[in-house]
Amino acid sequence: MSQDGIVLVASVSIFDNDKVLIIKENKPNAVDIWNFPGGHIEYGENIIYSAQREVKEETGLDVKLIGTTGIYNFISNTNDQVILFHFIGEITGGILNLEEDEITESKWIKVNGLSTFGDEDLREPHVIKQIIDNLLEKNIYSMSVFNEQLFK
Question: Which residues of 76-101 are buried (b: 16+ CB within 10 A; e: fewer)?
Answer without folding.
Answer: beeebebbbbbbbbebeeeeeebbee
